[in-house]
Amino acid sequence: MGKSRRTVPEELLLLALDPATGTTAQPQTLDLGLAGAQLVELSLAGRIVPEGDRIAVVLPRPTGDPTLDHALELLRRRGSPVRAAHWIGGPRLGLRQTYLAHLERCGMVTAVPGQVCGVLPTTRYQASDDCTNAAIKQRLDTAIRTGVPPDPRTAALAALAHSVGLGKHLYPGNEGRSSRSRLRDLIRYDPLGGMVAHAVMDVQNGLPSQQNRSAQSSSAVPAPSGGRPGQRAASGRGSGGRVAAPRVGVR
To answer: What is the CA 155 to chain-centroid distance, rounded?
Structure first.
């Protein structure tokens, strides 16, 4: 995989980077989003394919990107397809810092040492090319403004940005409410990106896997005549699809 194109995890992290503070928005959920973004990128590279709510490796050949190749090798070692939610929620936290170091090595961000309260050491990150960040955001803006179906990469990026709660960072305040809603709606334009984004939200909310929910739904049938119909637990989602805003934070 050449570096002429930024990967989805790289773009998600650059979107989350706050130029004013040098920190990332939604740090608690961003690790989950980055794990999901790796699945999207590996699929775009032809290394994995979805099988229902599971991910299967179909081509274990390295991509040339060390962070993606590490994820690909972990998936290969599983030996059988793994549920996206199980993968995303697995004990592989720290991806945010891993990708910040990766972006620094690639020259996409610059690390700026500093101190908190003049005592505690800290590191802030600045994008090396503001035009790059602006171009990423412009793709989302165009899809939101025009309503033209975006390409799968942009649709997946939008779905992941929504899933980790970046909407309020990208489109803040009351004036950004409609843009946040349309960002959420872009989830429908990429089936894999949508599946991964929903898995990210499921992990955040502690919900069962899609397969378990489907089994529960099929068992909720009407009772015999005179009885009460079966009830499904409220999930905060409308009948039109799973597009409810995520609850920010990891339990």
So the answer is: 11
CA atoms 29, 63, 134, 145: torsion sign: negative
What local confidence, expressed as pLDDT, does residue 93 receive?
A: 64
Dihedral, 134, 139, 145, 146 alpha carbons, nearest 10: 140
Q: Which residues of 189-227 are buried (b: 16+ CB within 10 A; e: fewer)?
A: bbebbbbbbbbbbbbbeebebbeebeeeeeeeeeeeeee
60: nearest Cα among 38, 121, 70, 142: 70
Buried b (16+ CB within 10 A) or exposed e, 85-99: bebbbeebeebbebb
H helices of 171-246, in order, are 177-185, 191-205, 210-219
CA pair distance 99, 92, nearest whole angstrom = 13
pLDDT for 150-179, tens place per residue?
999 999 999 999 999 999 999 999 999 999
**pLDDT of 49 strictly over 70:** yes
Is 65:58 a contact under the CB 8 Å cutoff? no
Give the whole-angstrom CA distance, residue 75 versus residue 82: 8
- Give the per-residue pLDDT at 116: 67
CA dihedral of residues 52, 204, 245, 152 (deg, nearest 10): -40
Contact predicate 105/95, CB 8 Å = no
pTM for this entry: 0.78
